[in-house]
Amino acid sequence: MRRKDREITSLEKIEEIIRSCKICHIAMSRGGEPYLVPMSYGYEMAGGRLTLCLHSAREGKKLDILRQNSRVCFEISREEGLVYSNSPCGCGTLYSSVIGDGEVVFINDGDEKCEALSRLYKHQTGDEVKFTHRQADAVCVFKIISEQFTGKRRSV
Predict the structure, then answer these.
(1) Which 8-state DSSP code applies to residue 59?
(2) Measured in whole angstroms, how far is the alpha carbon of residue 38 from the centre of its chain?
(3) pLDDT one-digit tens code per residue, 10-62
(4) Is residue 49 part of a domain?
(5) Residue 15 in 3-state DSSP?
(6) Which of 66, 68, 104, 123 has the smallest number of CB atoms closer than 10 Å to its CB?
């Protein structure tokens, strides 16, 4: 990271950013063509490994790409205000972000799908819900497993 003064090394502070946000952007590529989508997520942080839980329709462009190339990059961020200056070059944005890369793993086991959907729902709403196998079968559920992610913050 070039700006070491903005780097976040504490896993607790990185997880606080992940916990406070609701949308992550997933970047993928097929045949050299980039594709980026915003997605709702749930997560688990354990042993320095971040697992993002996601769901989508059972078919579509995103899934076609991920089935061909399961390597992705993700970004989670929040804006925290603007910095104003008399000089345009002195203006900027206060922010916190987490960026990482990982491998997409499709979840086919019914119990694991239900658990991942429950984790996602709890993160998004704060409510605990148990999904049925029938509900889980209606969607595609996958996870991104990442051991390489960094946090960054610009604060006043």
Answers:
(1) S
(2) 9
(3) 899 999 999 999 999 999 999 999 999 999 999 999 999 999 999 999 999 99
(4) yes
(5) helix
(6) 68
**C-alpha separations of 126 from 53, 79, 89, 130 in Å:** 15, 22, 40, 13
**Residue 121 belongs to a domain:** no
Residue 130 lies in a domain: no
CB 62 within 8 A of CB 54: no
Is residue 150 assigned to a domain?
Answer: yes
Instruction: Give me the domain span that covers residue 55.
Output: 4-108+140-154
Structure confidence at residue 9 (pLDDT)? 85
Radius of gyration of the chain (CA): 17
Residue of higher predicted confidence among 8 and 149: 149
Sign of CA dihedral 71, 15, 40, 118: positive
For residue 46, give the H/E element and its range: strand 42-46
